[in-house]
Amino acid sequence: MSLIALSFTIIFVMVTMLISVWQKLDLEKDIAIGTVRSAVQLLLVGYVLQFIFNSDHPVLIIAIVGFMIIVASINAGKRGKGLRWISLYIAAAITVTELLMMGLLLGLGIVEPTPQYIIPLSGMTIGNAMVVSGLFLNQMKREVESSKGEIESLLALGATPRRAFQDVLKRSVKSSMIPTIDGMKTVGLVQLPGMMTGMIIAGADPVDAVRYQILIVFAFTSSAAITSILLSLMTYRQWFTSDMRLRSL
After folding, report:
1. Which among 8, 164, 219, 248 could bridge 154 via Cys, Cβ 3.0 to 4.6 Å?
2. Which residues span the membrane (predicted)?
3. CB neighbours of 132 closer than 8 A, spacing ≥ 6?
């Protein structure tokens, strides 16, 4: 795609902004900022990846993956405002998930240990874990608010924080995984996923593209489950005070 052709895609943004003005949605500023940021960020990432791919140095690969985890943790941590050190807990959960996923993929020889494979797959895994973390924290807030009386009653009867929170944690974990599970059920029928589409556009055999996409779908499902479960185990005590009372965020 030429730069001239790429520049014409700004029409899509302009149409969106015009609709916002027409419907008085007051989203023009956010759309403009998002457009500029996304373009600049993607261009910078493109040059950074080009440099890393050419150098093929393990330290640079670890650095870029670590940067992804930090950004994802900070962004998802905003959903848990009021919880102490929540971004660190999210970072720990995402890091464990990333190590498990890439350890299996590389250890079993499913993908080659090169930046071209490690960085894109890590980015998709971390991004999915970030979304799951945000969904989990959002659902936890709603569950705690709606089940406050039940939780406090269980605590008053002598239940441990874990026991009082058990049902809340289960519902939150299930809710955070719904988009991933729904995506598994409809992949290839409702949409052609990004990796598969990109490979086909780049000229790869559709069957080979499907094989890689199956790998991604399975990895996403596993990473979603691991992230949400780890996060629930590590953070449930954050909802209680030192004397085992339910905190008010």
Report:
1. 164
2. 6-22, 34-53, 59-76, 88-111, 117-137, 186-204, 210-236
3. 176, 177, 180, 223, 224, 227, 228
